[in-house]
Design brief:
- The chain is mainly beta and 172 residues long.
- Strands 5, 7, 8, 11, 14 and 16 form a 6-stranded antiparallel beta sheet that branches. Strands 6, 9, 10, 12, 13 and 15 form a 6-stranded antiparallel beta sheet that branches.
- It has helices spanning 30-33, 124-127; strands at 6-8, 11-13, 15-18, 21-25, 28-29, 36-42, 44-48, 53-57, 64-71, 74-75, 81-87, 98-103, 119-123, 130-136, 144-155, 163-171.
- The chain is built from 2 helices and 16 strands.
């Protein structure tokens, strides 16, 4: 339904099965679920609530710092899209990269981003410092046992410790 809600006998449903087959699902809201795990960091920090996920890599001028977090394991069977709303503190250059993507590996590090272990959907250098956009979930991740990863890098830049904030991570 266009409203995104199905009510049966006065109960709001999260999923509708007919004859043992799932025919509708309300989606997965990863921000509201608030189940994140740090997998790798060098002078990075993060925090989350039911309204946002934030990542911060400490500003340095001598080396690259990062923070990598992942969601709880997801069953993405039947889902095709992910909608992200983000703000990379108004910066999109190569020294302040922010990422979002999928993997079936539960313990990725910053080295895994541009490898076969991870498929990126958001790169703030490409999609911009802030925005709301719906991306297609790559077909190889439309199954059980998938993680959504978020990563923030800060490399050789003077300035403050800017944040990458996600306000919406909605799977439908």
């Amino acid at each position: 339904p266009s409203s995104g809600k199905v009510v049966c006998n006065g109960t709001s449903l999260k999923q509708l099965n007919i004859g043992g087959t799932k025919v509708w699902n309300s989606g997965i809201d990863l921000i509201a679920a608030n189940k994140w795990t740090q997998t790798s960091s060098q002078y990075g920090s993060w925090g989350s609530s039911t309204s946002q996920l934030w990542l911060r890599a400490q500003a340095r001028t001598d080396w690259w710092n990062w923070i990598v977090v992942r969601s709880a394991a997801l069953n993405l069977t039947g889902y095709t899209q992910i909608t992200l709303q983000w703000d990379n503190h108004g910066v999109s250059g190569p020294n302040w990269k922010g990422f979002g993507g999928f993997s079936t590996n539960a313990s990725l590090t910053q080295h895994d981003w541009n490898s076969t272990h991870m498929t990126e959907v958001l790169d703030t250098q490409v999609q911009g410092a802030a925005g709301t956009k719906t991306f297609s979930i790559p077909s190889q991740f439309r199954k059980n046992g998938v993680y959504f990863y978020a990563q923030r890098n800060f490399y050789k830049a003077n300035g403050t410790n800017e944040y990458l904030r996600f306000y919406k991570i909605q799977i439908s």
